[in-house]
Design a protein that fits this description.
Length: about 160
């Protein structure tokens, strides 16, 4: 018995289906409408996230300054500069360079917010005495987009974000 090799089935273009131009335009229109609705909400959420992160960073650095004052038994200063949207822990150096104070610039990534104001007894410097108590309570206001957060420091050194 002779076996004949079988032929591979041939394909024809009549069985395939493609998208019509109308279907493609409808899908692109729906995608554009959804993107125009979602984009502002996404931008707002990112701005709110950056603002919350900046406020938490300020709280953490206030606590760091307070802990440094307690550990050293000396006055420690956290100096805010609203004009440059930054603040520094005076005399605290991080890293190998040892060429300046520990500084955070809030108007640069990852925060990209503005330091609107900082006032502690009328001054922009928050001073903690050797026991970790602030010389004066006060507020720090940061703004991102249309929202703002206020960091409150009371006379006992407790810090809250509003």
């Amino acid at each position: 018995m002779l076996l004949r090799p079988q032929r591979a089935p041939t394909s024809t273009l009549t069985g395939t289906r493609a998208f019509t131009l109308f279907e493609l335009i409808v899908v692109l229109s729906i995608t554009t409408i959804l993107a125009s609705i979602v984009a502002p909400k996404y931008a707002s959420a990112v701005a709110r996230y950056r603002l919350e992160t900046a406020a938490r960073r300020i709280v953490a650095d206030i606590e760091q300054t307070r802990a440094l004052a307690r550990a050293s038994g000396t006055t420690q200063v956290l100096s805010f500069a609203p004009s440059t949207h930054s603040y520094s822990i005076v005399g605290f150096v991080v890293g190998a360079s040892r060429t300046g104070d520990y500084t955070v610039r809030l108007n640069q990534p990852p925060y990209s917010v503005t330091l609107q104001s900082a006032s502690f007894g009328g001054m922009p410097d928050l001073k903690f005495g050797g026991f970790g108590l602030p010389a004066d309570g006060g507020t720090v206001v940061v703004r991102g987009g249309t929202e703002a957060r206020t960091v409150l420091i009371d006379a006992t050194g407790a810090v809250t974000v509003q």
